[in-house]
């Protein structure tokens, strides 16, 4: 066997190894005209993404004992994520997380990658979106998406990160959520999002304002995987809130809170709704934020 053939075999083996060992899939975008693409009318008419629905065999009756207080809030760290997927203008919730580059956000993976294998395009982030309009920070272009391989292959780990095209560090303007802390269960949390429906009380549910639900969440094994952990709260957050941050300790030094998950999916059994956020694998998070 000559050296040329050996070289080709080695290259092939390296490619095969990368395909089966890489933990994320990345996508970059040409964003030259994306700001003009998102007119005010198109933003207002964007279709809210539904969180995924998984059937449950559990009643979760104890969920009714958890209390909540909710209201509208104006926070620059959280905003609306606008994108095109399956040929339609759509919207989710996203937030800014603490990273060394200062230009990284997080949302639900199902907002960035469809079951048909399509990545979202024309992606922008509107931090502090309020009363149907972007804040003074305007519309921030998203130039990169990192989606976990585990989501693409098995539809678990429904969270992904986005890369902002911003001069300087966006997190210095918006604040950020820390991450890397797993609290004992149950834990008091705040969930942020831009719902168009759902069960959050004292929330306009018009997609124009950020709302927050406060209550207790429990960490449980998911019945459809038997080995995957997720945080649960006893209500339906609502469409448009997918990707919204689940946060503990709202006022630690230097941060607005610690992120433990993002709104991923809900289910209903005998009239009882539950919403879930996958427990984060922080080793995977470190890989996701390691932009090339």
From TrEMBL:
GO terms for molecular function: serine-type endopeptidase activity. It comes from the Eukaryota. It holds the Pfam family Trypsin. GO terms for biological process: proteolysis. Residues 1-21 form the signal peptide. InterPro entries: Glutamyl_endopeptidase, Peptidase_S1_PA, Peptidase_S1_PA_chymotrypsin, Trypsin_dom, TRYPSIN_HIS. The keyword Nucleotidyltransferase does not apply. Keywords: Signal. Residues 85-283 form the Peptidase S1 domain. Belongs to the peptidase S1 family. This is Peptidase S1 domain-containing protein.
């Amino acid at each position: 066997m000559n050296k040329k053939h050996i070289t080709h075999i080695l290259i092939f083996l390296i490619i095969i190894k990368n395909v089966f060992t890489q933990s994320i899939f990345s996508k970059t975008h040409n964003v030259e005209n994306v700001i003009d693409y998102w007119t005010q009318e198109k933003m207002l008419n964007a279709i809210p993404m539904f969180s995924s629905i998984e059937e449950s065999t559990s009643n979760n009756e104890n969920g009714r004992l958890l209390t909540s207080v909710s209201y509208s809030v104006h926070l620059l760290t959280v905003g609306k994520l606008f994108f095109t997927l399956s040929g339609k203008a759509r919207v989710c919730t996203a937030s800014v997380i603490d990273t060394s580059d200062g230009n990284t956000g997080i949302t639900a993976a199902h907002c960035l990658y469809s079951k048909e294998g399509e990545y979202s395009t024309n992606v922008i982030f509107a931090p502090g979106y309020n009363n149907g309009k972007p804040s003074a920070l305007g519309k921030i272009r998203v130039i990169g998406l990192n989606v976990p391989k585990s989501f693409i292959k098995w539809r678990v780990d429904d969270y992904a990160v986005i890369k902002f095209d911003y001069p300087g560090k966006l997190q210095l303007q918006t604040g950020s959520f820390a991450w890397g802390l797993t609290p004992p269960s149950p834990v008091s949390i705040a969930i942020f999002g831009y719902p168009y429906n759902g069960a959050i009380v004292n929330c306009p549910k018009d997609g124009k304002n950020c709302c927050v639900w406060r209550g207790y969440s429990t960490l449980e094994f998911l019945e459809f995987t038997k080995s995957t952990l997720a945080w649960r709260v006893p209500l339906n957050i609502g469409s448009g809130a997918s990707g919204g941050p689940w946060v503990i300790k709202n006022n630690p030094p230097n941060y607005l809170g610690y992120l433990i998950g993002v709104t991923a999916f809900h289910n209903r059994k005998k009239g009882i709704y539950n919403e879930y956020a996958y427990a984060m694998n922080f080793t995977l998070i470190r890989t996701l934020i390691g932009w090339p």
